[in-house]
Specification:
Length: 402
């Protein structure tokens, strides 16, 4: 299923152009790498590993944060008070490299996320996808609305090293070998549990998870996601990236736990996500309208840009085959799911036929999991059914194609 195209209106383009002029003439233009340090920051709220800065102002369709130095952080996002409201505009950030002092170019935060339909926690907030920046100590923000922006806009700066827990070492487990781990039958796939790094392996601070997990009846389908943002992380940083997403979801957006049930890095390492038992049907917050009886597997990075590797594809297929196999489902089959909310693509109560292994965009109007990873879904389904009979293409390094 193809998502609805994301288009900028003529008004939005005009506002963006005017914004550039305003930023230049009011002194909010991007600072050069050699510019003097901005005044010391003052965060409006501080959590365990997260600092929030309120975006004030009187213009209903524009908010900005002038370039300033901050305490160290490695992930950034934007949240707002109404968990049901959409931003209705564009949010861009620049960050200052903690080691070199060089400012990045403007980066647009991804808006392809909605608060889960079951979220009723006091203080739950809507927000963008978080962006991994790497170690940074300065920030500048501009938010332009095509209409009135939502109330309570906050910049969330996440420092995954400041939770009080030591950064765990990368789990030393061998890669899952499909021929050893899974066997296929004509009707269903019986799959062994793949190697999965537990929550303790990425440093989850369990004291921040206040409520016990909620369970659904079973796992009928798997949705594949990407976390968007940056691909500029090393696989040794994967635990910190996941810890940052956890802190952003829990402290920035007020969720009870990280939204995804599983996460996978570009090296093919699988991580346990939401607490409750990897072999149990834990209710997640990953596909708005279709969280019941489904599991979310999120790949770290932006797969509109990045290209999947064989270890990554096999890892996704391995988790999907195992989870669906627990309930006797063929990963290559289809399933009818009932939308639990009006989500912009389907109406509440609508019955939708989907693949057992689908992309986020199949259930929600989004680009997720990115064009490249979405194009890999047919291969992932084949790998989940019969991994030893499917040749996996090896990506050609940039500059060697042709």
């Amino acid at each position: 299923m193809t998502p609805k195209p994301l288009r900028r209106t003529a008004r939005a383009a005009t506002v963006a152009a005017l914004t550039t002029v305003v930023l230049t003439t009011t002194g909010l233009a991007a600072p050069a790498a050699t510019s003097a340090p901005a005044p010391a920051p003052t965060a409006d709220a501080t959590g365990k590993g997260l600092r929030s800065i309120v975006l004030g102002g009187t213009d209903p369709s524009y908010r900005a944060l002038a370039a300033r130095r901050t305490a160290p952080f490695s992930m950034i996002g934007l949240t707002w008070a109404d968990p049901r409201a959409e931003l209705g505009g564009t949010a861009q950030v620049r960050t200052r490299d903690h080691l070199t002092g060089v400012w990045s170019g403007w980066q647009t935060l991804d808006l392809d996320v909605r608060t889960p339909e079951t979220a009723r926690e006091a203080g739950a907030r809507a927000g963008t996808q978080p962006l991994w920046t790497g170690p940074a100590d300065g920030v500048q923000v501009r938010v332009t609305g095509e209409r009135k922006l939502p109330q309570g806009l906050r910049v969330e700066l996440v420092d995954p090293t400041a939770t009080g827990a030591a950064t765990p070492a990368r789990t030393a487990t061998r890669a899952l070998v499909p021929s050893e781990a899974r066997t296929a039958t004509a009707a269903t796939t019986t799959a062994a549990q793949p190697a999965i790094t537990p929550r303790s392996g990425w440093g989850a601070d369990e004291s921040l998870v206040l409520n016990p997990p909620t369970y659904t009846a079973q796992t009928k389908a798997v949705f594949v996601h990407h976390t968007a943002g940056s691909n500029d992380y090393t696989c040794d940083q994967s635990a910190a990236v996941i810890r940052g997403i956890f802190l952003y979801h829990v402290q920035g957006q007020g969720w009870n736990d990280i939204g995804y049930q599983f996460l996978v890095d570009k090296c093919g390492t699988v991580f346990e996500g939401r607490k409750g038992g990897i072999d149990k049907p834990v209710l997640g917050a990953q596909t708005y309208g279709f969280n019941t009886d489904t599991t979310g597997i999120a790949v770290l990075g932006n797969y509109n840009d990045a290209v999947s590797t064989p270890p990554l594809l096999d890892a996704i297929a391995g988790v999907a085959a195992w989870k669906l196999g627990l309930y006797g489902y063929d990963p290559a089959s289809t399933v009818n799911l009932v939308a639990a909310a009006d989500n912009g693509l389907y109406k509440k109560g609508q019955v939708v036929a989907m693949q057992r292994i689908s992309g986020h965009r199949d259930g929600f109007p989004t680009e997720c999991p990115g064009a490249n990873l979405y194009a890999d879904l047919p291969l992932i389904r084949q790998l989940a059914v019969s991994p030893t009979s499917v040749p996996v293409p090896v990506p050609v390094p940039a500059g060697q194609a042709g």
